[in-house]
Every structure is written in C-alpha cells, then in structure tokens.
Amino acid sequence: MKHLLIAAGLLSATSAIAADKPQLTVYTYDSFVSDWGPGPQVEEAFEAVCNCDLNLVGVEDGAALLSRIRLEGENSEADVVLGLDTSLINAAKDTGLFAPSSVTADYALPIEWTDDVFAPYDWGYFAFVHNADYSAPANFRELANSETKIIIQDPRSSTPGLGLLLWVKAAYGDEAPEIWAGLADNIVTVTKGWSEAYGLFLEGESDMVLSYTTSPAYHLIAEEDASKSAAVFDEGNYMQVEVAGKLAGTDQPELADQFLEFMVSDAFQQIIPTTNWMYPAVTPAAGLPEGFETLTVPEKALLFSPDEAADVRDQALAEWLSALSQ
Amino acid sequence: MVERAQPVSPLPGIGAAALVAALILGTLAAVALRAEAGGGFGPADWAALRFTLTQAILSALFSIGLAVPVARALARRRFPGRRALIALLGAPFILPVIVAIIGLLQVFGRAGWISDILGYFGFAPIRIYGLHGVVLAHVFFNLPLATRLILQGWQEIPAERFRLAAQLGCNGMAMFRLIELPMLKRILPGVLAVIFAICLTSFAVALTLGGGPRATTIELAIYQAFTYDFDLGRAALLSALQLALTAAAALAALRFSRGDGFGNGLDRPIRRWDGGAPIADALWIIAAAAFLLLPLASVVISGFAGLFETPALVFRAALTSVMVAAASTVILLLLALPMATAVATGRYGIVELSGILGLAASPLVIGTGLFILVRPVANPTALALPVTALVNAVMALPFALRILVPAARDVVSRHGRLALSLDMANMTFFVRILLPRMRAQIGFAAGLAAALSMGDLGVIALFADAQIATLPLQIYRLMGAYQMQAAAGGALLLLLLSMSAFWILDRGGRWHAEA
Fold first, then answer.
1. Right CATH for A124-239+298-324 from 3.40.190.10, 3.40.720.10, 1.20.1560.10, 1.20.1290.10
2. Distance (Å) from the alpha carbon of A189 to chain B's nearest alpha carbon
3. B167-184 mean pLDDT
4. Is residue B513's pLDDT more than 80?
5. What is the count of residue pairs from A and B with beta carbons less than 8 Å apart?
6. Would you call A172 an interface residue with chain B, using a CB distance cutoff of 8 Å?
7. Is the pLDDT of residue B354 over 70?
8. How many Å apart are CA A73 and CA B7, to the nearest integer?
9. Is B259 helix (H, G, I), strand (E, B) or coil?
10. Does domain B16-262+277-510 have CATH number 3.40.50.20?
C-alpha cells in the first residue's frame, strides 16, 4: 500500500511539473523507446521545436500496441500511435479510433503511399540473414529443396513471423501450402519473437534467420563486423512499412499533427537508420549513413495492400499451421 | 463436530487467501467483461489443450522421477560443496525465459556443446526439437525446485527416527519403506501439482523447444487471442480453462497427500547410519549437477565478456529489480505466513487452493485485468513497479506454501496444545513459537520469492514506459536492439543478483541451525 501511495505521489508531482507545457502522448513499441532505439533522440529533437512535453509510452510490439489502443478505446491517453505496419492498418481503421491526417512527403518507398489516415516513418524488406560466406538459396523453392536450416518467428506472436506468412502468400498465392510443406524440414524451430530467433542464429543454431535486409547494417556500422549478409529472393522480398496515425479522441490535435509532420522531416528521419535499423521513409538531405550502400537490395518488392493483407491473413495462418503441424 | 481449540486464528490466513483469489479471479472477470464478442473453442484450441496436458504431465512426472533419487542422494551424503550445489539448484528457474532457452540450446542444440562432441566422433548432432525437447527444458527448470522441496521433506524427518531405525538394524530397503516412503507420499503429490501448473502455462519454452506450431500451448493461444485476434472473450475462456485444470490438479494433490507426520523430535542434527549405495548416490548427484550446471555455465561464459560492456542503464535497472524483489518478498511473506498458519490449524484446503492458482493465472490475463481495473482510478504506468511486485508475490505464493505448510503443520501439532495450556495463543504463539521454529523455511521461501521476482519479466512489459525498467525487461530491450553480448552480460548480472538474494535469505534463515 505504501508503494501505491509513493507512486501516486510521484505521479501527481510529475503532472504538476508538466502542467505548464502541453503534453503529447505517443504510444509506440517497446524497442522504439528503449535507450538503444530512436526514442530518446526523437524526444529531444521534437521537444526542442514544439514547446511541449513528449511522452513516449512503449508497448511490447506492433500487434500488442493495437490491442492496447482497442483496450483503452475512446478514453485512451494516447494522442498518436506510432509503430503499426501495413498488416495492421486495416484492423486499426476498423476500430474507428483514428483520425485522417494530411501529412504528405516525398517518400522514398518502392511503392506509392496513398493512405489518408496513416503516414509511414520507416520501412524495410524482410529477408533471411546469413553469414556472408554462406551460399544462400535464391528463392523459396530452392530453399525447400536444400539442406539449409532456418529459424523463423511465429506469425501469431511476432511481426516478422506474420510478414513471412504474407511474403509466401504474396509470392505463391494458392501454392503457398505446398511451399510451406516443402519448408517444414528446413525449419529448425519457430520462436515467439524476433530476439529469440536472432539470438539462436548468432549462436550458430541455424544457417539463416528471418530478419530484415537492413540487419547486416547493424553489424557493419555498430560492430564493424561485415560477416553478415541478407539473402535476396528472386520472387521478391516482402516489405514492412511502419506507420503512425493520430487518434480521433486526442485532446492535442494540433500538436499531434505537428508531430506527424515532424516525423517525416529530416530531424526525425535521420535518427531512424542507425537506431531502428530500417530505411527512413524520406531520405534525409545528408543521405543514408555510410554502410547502408553495402546492403543487398531486392529487385522486386512485394506488399499486400492493407485490405488484401486483412483478407488473406487468416487463411494464410491456417495453411501455415496445417503444413507445419503434420 | 466441535473444532479443537487452536493456538492461532486461521482468520488472517483466510483473509489473505481471499485477497489472492480476488486478484486472480477479479482480473479474469475484468477481461471477460471487457470482451465484445467472445469466440468459442475451435479444433486448434483442442489440439493446444491436448499438447499442453501431455507436455505438462510428462514434464511433472520426469521432474519428480529424477528429483527423488537426487534428493535422496543429497539427503544421505555430506560432501564439500554440498551447500553451494544446493544453492545453485535454485538457479535455472530464476533465469528469464529467453536467457534460459539460449543457455539450454548452447548445450543441447544443433550447434551445442554435446552436438559438437558427437560431431568430433563422427556422429550426427542431437535432435532436440520436439516433445522430448519441451520435456527436457521443463525438467531443467523444475528438477531443481522439485529436488529442493523433496530434500526438505527428508530434512523434516526427526533425527530420532533415523537413530531408532539404525538401532533396529534397518537396511536401505527397510529404511525406505518405513521412513522415506511415507514422507514421499505426503510430499510428492503437492510437488507434482506445482510443477504441473508451472508447465501448464509455458509458452516460449514449449514453442521454441517443441520446434514449431505442433507445440502450441494454451498460453500461446491466450497470447494470440489478445494480440493477433483481440478476442478478449476467448482469452478469458482459455485462461479460465488453465485455472480449472490447475485447481483440479491441486485438489487431487491435496486429496492424495494426506498422511500422518513423524511426530516430535528433539531437533537434533540429523545423522544417518545407513550406508546406502554411495556410488549410485554419487552418480545421481554428478548427473543432476552436470545437467543443470552446463547450461548455467554457458550463460556465465557468454555473459562474462558482455559484463564489462554492459551500459550503466543496466545497472540502474538492476537496482530497480532489487527493490521490486524486496517489496515482492515482503508482500509474499505477509500473504504466505498467515495462509500457511491457517492451513496448519485445520482443513483449510481452500486456502491452499487459492494459493496455487497464482501459478496457473496467465500473466497476460492478470496484467491486462489489472490494467483495466487500475486505469479508471490511476495512471497504470505510475503503478508499474508496485503492480509487478504484487503479481510476482502472487506467482511465488504456491512455492512458498509448499515450503511453509508442512513445517507450520508440525509446529502447530507439536506445540499447539502446550501453548494453549500456557495461555500463549495467537500473536504470542505466532511470534514466539511459530516464526522462530520456521525460520529455515521462511528463509528458503523468502529467498525463492526474491530470486523469482528478480528474474521474472512478469507484467512490467504491459505497464512500463521508457523511464522504468527492471533488469529482465532491459535484457529483452538489449536483445531487441541487436545487443546480444550486452544482453548476455545483463543476464549474468541477473543470475548473480538472484543467486545472492537467494543465498543471503536462505542462509539467514538457517543461521545457527544445521540443515
């Protein structure tokens, strides 16, 4: 009980300090707010121009973030939600909790962006990451016929896992179950989240791991280690576009709009590549950081529209479950 | 039937049990009531239920089956390093799941140490992924706990019984039949139920070691219902199923674990005169130590390099974790001591039942339920740490009760009537007789609670913001930011802190007493 009182005291103290400035609350995923993510720099940069207090709240991952918003409903503390991706946009719009936004920018996405509610802030390609000296298969069929061992994430609990599900579906359509059946003996294991999978891959438990084409950039830039590469598949690599949107129930609509505009500006975008390890949605004036030019770039980008993704998701999951549960 | 007069009132314990039950069932109800459309049971849920039960039953049986000979060997032998080994036995299940999985696979995985050695001799790597892998991992987590709980059963047999048995010339077999078997019959059902309940709520371990969606557990289905489908009705339904299964197991355990104790003794240090089978005992101890310590060694080795590049933030998170663990331990003792006393004074099986539910409650459901309940009155983020301490205490409660109840029962039956006749009832009895005589068990339970709380990610992930982080959460964040080495350093720090907390509290309880 004592702790509750202390906590309540701290709470009222912090709200008293913040009272003289408007506060903007942004819900995002946990790795965004962590000290190694973009959060701290974004907060500093935005507070320097907004005369406000930016309050970043981290919630596990993109899917859990949307669940949190649905749980809080119209009374949510959040003004902006940052960290959903295209596979969640449809469900997010269906809640009716998000407000249209007028943000536009000269996006560096390989696709055209027309959504009137959500604005993108970064993007990447899903890819299998392997050691540079490993000769990776060129597509899913070759992978299925090879001895290559992979670790993937569960689509029910992980964003990359769901990305892979949609990737195979986008590339193979009705043939997807056949591809999964072929991949079954290549899959060492399926993990709950990205961290377990990537950690096990680094320990040598598999030849390749599902991650992003930008993952080798981390090793190269942060660790000066050029030993990792990402495999480009000739049927195309599926994209992830991460987006943010304003909540309809916000009590700070102008500040929320200002934040979304700030999000696609240089000050925000230049933070993204070496903290979130993704491509910025708008290429900063200074260009991409040194090292990004070494990354493999898929020739073909695959992406379902939000509507298509919502339509195929459940069927693709059922196919995945039945192929891998044999 | 007129209840016999008791030296302490069971009321505080019943009150504590009601609080715990209200927390667990109340959060479940909060989730269920918030549901818009409740989904029913699909074929996939039945498959998940089947797999969950199979792996939980096998894991519990194997853990117990192996723990009995190991505990027996440890009870019979005295050797240098015995205490350190017993303390280290606490380590596996205080590790964050993600760290334990990686440690385990560094030893047993495709590229693990054992596969490396096999490869050196030209054999194929071992295939760890599958039901056997799930059971292996759960035995890794639970064998130590089972061993400690069973070992305690051995230590609670009065020294006089062994003395008498030796005088009568009992050999190993007779000793087992007359003294050890009755003790095991009393202890094992409860231990079995606790481990069954722990394995019932497994998610990441079962999925990763199980090798894919074949190894889908109910807890994974709950997670999916929350995040993938946002179907709160289904989440609540599945969670209720978990609680019902655990309650059934607990009731069965309570039913089967009846039996008389060993009566009074003079608290002499235990000496054994039966030689037993020294070589077999040594083999059991060495095998168990190797099985448990190799993965821990891999955590220590990978963490050592990272420990020196661990950022200062991690140390700040460690401080937070120590504070949460301390608070959680205090809450646990405030709940567990009255509850154990209530159970000891009569047939309050319902109190024990409410205590064990903490294990079966899905952290996601408790966390979400608390979130729904707290939000109208306070900012959940501001309550992240108190809520985490509380939930951790409730999750440690079943272990604490298993440790405290047998001892409390003994004290009440041995000293209760004398205390009543001397007019030393209630607080006097509790403070002057019960607590001092149970200090070894209290120390063990407190150590376990502190260590568990330190290592548990718990509900903090649902409540935390950027400024608040416990050590396990910071380790996950490091891993999420590609910083596997620093995360390994954090894991080693966590291991050291948890072990120290456990060691200090456990030893503190045994000060001036031979265990």
1. 3.40.190.10
2. 4
3. 80
4. no
5. 167
6. no
7. yes
8. 53
9. coil
10. no
